[in-house]
Write a structure and sequence with these properties.
single chain, alpha+beta, endopeptidase fold (from Nostoc punctiforme), 20 helices, 6 strands, globular
Amino acid sequence: MNTSSSSARHEVNLAIYDLSKGMARNMSAQLLGPEYAIEIIPHTAILAFGKEYYFGQGIEWGSPHEFRSTRGIQPIDIQPLGHTTCTEQQFEDWCRAQAASGSFGAQAYDLIHRNCNNFSEEASRQGLRLQKGVPQWILELPQKVLNSPMGMVMRPLLENMQIGNNAPTNIPTGSARMAQPATSATASPAPVAAANPWANIPVAASTSATPSVTQSNTTKDTTPLLDKQTALLSTDTGVVKICIDRLKPEQEQIGLVSKLGDIKASWTQQGINSVHQYLRAVIESNDTRHLSFALMLLRLVVLRQSSSTDMSSNAEQSQSTQLVATLLLKNKLSQATRSMAWCVLSNAMGSAQPPDWNVSASTESDKFSQMIDRALSDCDPKYAAPSTPSHIQLRQSAAAFLYNSSRRCAENCNAELSEGTMSILLGCLEHLHSETDVTTMQRLYMATGQLLKSNTSGKTAAGLVKDLGLVDEKISKGKHKEVEALAKEVTALLR
């Protein structure tokens, strides 16, 4: 505790971080429109008494080095706020009072009114009694984004990039002190998994379009969670109008594309084909400003079925999925755009008319095997900056594709495992050792479980896993309580 007298003056600075790590500067104009473009997604903290004070999972403080090293970020600017006559004890008592009142308590986070930057503003002006606080443009930025045409779509991304209750924090337990009504030394809550604004896919999503995987009678009682799982589909239609506004299709296309916003709309095969052709033309135009929006719509088109009895032709869907697969294999897309591309292919694999890739093929040159390898690469938690929201979203989307693909393999493969099936099985198990995002982890367990409980190839798959010695404590227990039940079911299939 600082014991200096109340007349002593202490230097106070404001640390400004860019939580997007440059992504906002590169993508905001494309997603929000040029007039709403932003340079950074700011997080601010108060630097005083040799510590860094910030609003995360409540009001927390600790060593500036510790804060930065645990999150892998550094300030882009340090601004002087002045000198305070408050002591360290007085300021930390003020922080505890804010926690006790609920103003900046553990559950108080709000993107607009109670974020990390609002805390820094009140801490500087009220807690430390300074004349200077957070720059106004930082305080106004959330509302600026939400006022844009894509604002509501971007809100989950902004919330997950804040170091708050709705964001992943990556702090080891007990590494920071949190303001409490009584004592201040507490352990930080466990990190919260990031939502995926690019893919509205609940863990137990259901669809009548895809039949359930054939299950062995011996697993029905031991795998109730795995037995309930159906295809994971990204079905959110809220962005259709926004996409149309940005793509500006010709008049003859507007009516058809608009129908994507109505899940009950009736479709002809000609109408579905026409939308496929239009969106492929947008993607092939190489206009990066429109690519993400075209993919957002394409993920919905692949789920639409003709109301006629003629279901013989899905040539247009095959061309569309081949195009998206090629984009992913070239590895020239941004992380956010790759996430949406995986949503397209995940939906296609989970639809009634999946891509005409041979999931039983035994050659490595097969398109399906190539896409599995690409998905495993994008799903690798060892990739650079694995805790950033954009990479968490990418892993979640790629893992959804792996899961839907595992269902197809379990349905269509024979006792001899194909290259793609083995890649999913072994790749998912390998990634589980180092994965930290709960949603991604759940999908990896689900994909593994589908293959292990298949009537046709389950025994072969389980034998391969055991022969390779891939069954260990990490696999059987998982890392988070949210996946413990799934982990136990997967382990039961390996006994």
